[in-house]
Every structure is written in C-alpha cells, then in structure tokens.
Design a protein that fits this description.
Shape: rod-shaped
Distance between the termini: 111 Å
Strand order of the largest sheet: 4-5-6-7-8
Number of helices: 3
Strand content: 15-25%
Structural class: alpha+beta
Number of strands: 8
Order of helices and strands: HHEEEEEEEHE
Length: 179
C-alpha cells in the first residue's frame, strides 16, 4: 500500500471518530450574541449614570476654582466712609478685609454703639458673583443679606440682591469701598 493511500485512510478513520457537537456550539454562539445585546444597553445606562453623577461634581469643582481665583484677586482691606445716618449710628470709617478663601471680616469706627459683639467676625462670604452675610445678626438685623458686587480697579461696590436689613444695606451700598 502506498504512503498516500495509508495517509488518506488514516485521516478518514480519525475523522470518523470525531463527532463535533454542533448543537452545543450553536447554543453557545446564541448565548454570546444575547449577552452582547443585553450588555450594550447596560453599558449605555452606566455611561449615562456616570455622566449624570460626575458632571455636577466637575462643574462644582470648576466653579469653586473660579471662586477661589476671584477671591484671591479681591483679597485686600477696603474702607468706606459712611455718612451720618438717622437712628442707625453707623457713621464713620468702616473696613472690609477680604481673605483669599472668600471669607471676610468687617469692622466699624471706634465708639460704634451696637448691641452685642459688633459686626467684626460675622459671617461674610464672597464668591465670583455674590456676597452673602449675616452682618449685624441678632443686633440690628435678622437673617442674611445677598449682594452683587463689582470691582473697578481699587474700588469695590455692592448692590442689594435681597436683604431686609436697613443697617446692612446702608453699610454696604451707601459708599464705595476703596483699597
């Protein structure tokens, strides 16, 4: 018998012994396709959820960095001379010290006669658009006031956004604050 014939008969015999499980292979292919079809929407849902969760965090961080940059630029001590006011006794030279973190301290003229510890050390917070304060809280005012601000060179001016306190409005808006 020739080599070629022996090789051919051996291959035929080996092929007869192998029975591929085509049904099982077909089921595996179908399951793989089904998993892929289920996985795609899951990936889309996870991507949308991550976007919804992460975008506000990223925006908040960028706003915080912007606020920090603005308040670093504003960091200085400003003074304002308040005119004599009827009944409020706020006349004189006031100072506003803005720190790089956006917090600030307010102090009044010597002999200031307000009840309590006075305005120094009260809550004042400045961000890139607004100043929020409880200045004169439990003394001349209740609640907080919200003000817009603008700086031109060394002059800082405030405009009332929302505040029911006449003393705070008088202090912050009646005179420009200069460095």
């Amino acid at each position: 018998m020739s080599f070629e014939r022996r090789l051919r008969e051996g291959l035929v015999a080996a092929a007869a012994r192998v029975e591929p499980d085509t049904e099982r292979a077909l089921v595996r292919v179908r399951l793989h396709r089904r998993r892929r079809r289920l996985f795609r929407p899951l990936v889309a849902v996870v991507a949308v959820a991550m976007t919804v969760l992460l975008v506000p965090v990223v925006l908040a961080l960028s706003a915080e960095r912007r606020d920090e940059a603005v308040t670093r630029e504003l960091a200085a001590t400003y003074t304002a001379e308040l005119p004599d006011t009827s009944g409020l006794n706020l006349a004189g030279r006031w100072f506003l010290t803005v720190r790089p973190d956006g917090s600030a301290n307010v102090g009044g003229p010597p002999g200031l006669t307000v009840r309590g510890p006075g305005p120094a050390g009260t809550y004042v917070r400045i961000d890139d658009e607004r100043l929020r304060t409880n200045l004169f809280y439990n003394d001349l005012c209740t609640g907080e006031g919200l003000y817009g601000w603008r700086r031109d060179g060394d002059v800082l001016t405030f405009t009332v956004v929302e505040d029911t306190c006449a003393a705070r409005r008088m202090l912050l808006t009646s005179s420009p604050w200069s460095r």
